[in-house]
Automatic annotation (TrEMBL):
Biological processes per GO annotation: riboflavin biosynthetic process
MF GO annotations: 5-amino-6-(5-phosphoribosylamino)uracil reductase activity
Regions that span the bilayer: none
Residue ranges of every copy of the Bacterial bifunctional deaminase-reductase C-terminal domain listed in the record: 4-193
UniProt xrefs under Pfam families: RibD_C
Superkingdom assignment: Bacteria
Matching SUPFAM superfamilies: Dihydrofolate reductase-like
Protein name: Bifunctional deaminase-reductase domain protein
Length: 206
């Protein structure tokens, strides 16, 4: 049986998941937003940032999210930013399907990540990702525009938000432009830790 389609993001208290400009992705606000994940042992090991790191519920959630993911889908904006920032061994270790208008051959990276470039829309990318994921889940990795497209198309089953005690004031809102008339949510879990509050919702058609 095919797995779920989900996304998992960090979000500021005022609803933003990223700065407006990709040039600011490693800036102060974004680093504050992601502060909870950088010390986690699994995250450090996956990105080969050195030994050590924290263990606990935050670390468990990072590991569980990685382990449930059999393939990922992302938008071109996220790929372009990541292509510059990710290490040579990209952190996905699964097939990744990039929704784009550009035509490009698959890009294989060390460690099991291969980027495939899909030119015929979000549903085609998801269909390919499902086939690659097998019985594991498909993660809509981002960015915000790609996530919103999948939510509005009724293609997301579940999502998790790590609500971080940070205020952005401006940037990319997670649900800017959501079709609220057709999307209903059911809370699955709310789990506070020392650094963030992890919120999980099932997505239903209204």
């Amino acid at each position: 049986m095919a797995g779920k389609v989900f996304f998992s993001v960090s979000m500021s208290l005022d609803g933003f998941i990223a700065p407006e400009s990709t040039a600011e992705l490693m800036g102060r606000q974004w680093m504050e937003l992601q502060r909870w994940i950088f010390p986690q042992r699994f995250f450090r090991e996956n990105l080969k940032l050195g030994g050590g790191g924290e263990e606990g519920r935050d670390n468990d959630i990072v590991r569980e999210t990685f382990e449930r993911t059999g393939a990922s889908v992302m938008g071109k904006r996220m790929f372009d930013a990541g292509e510059e920032m990710w290490p040579e061994e990209a952190p996905f270790h699964t097939p990744v399907f990039v929704v784009t208008h550009d035509k490009r051959d698959p890009w294989e990276r060390p460690g099991g990540t291969t980027f495939h470039f899909v030119n015929d829309g979000i549903e085609a990318a998801l269909e390919q990702a499902r086939a690659a994921a097998g019985d594991r889940d498909v993660r809509i990795a981002g960015g915000g525009a790609a996530i919103l497209q999948y939510v509005n198309a009724g293609l997301v089953d579940e999502f998790s938000v790590a609500l971080s005690p940070v205020l952005f004031g401006s940037g990319i809102r997670l649900f800017e432009g959501v079709d609220a008339g057709r999307v209903a949510l059911e809370q699955v879990r709310a789990e506070p830790t020392r650094r963030v509050t992890h919120l999980t919702y099932a997505v239903r058609e209204r």
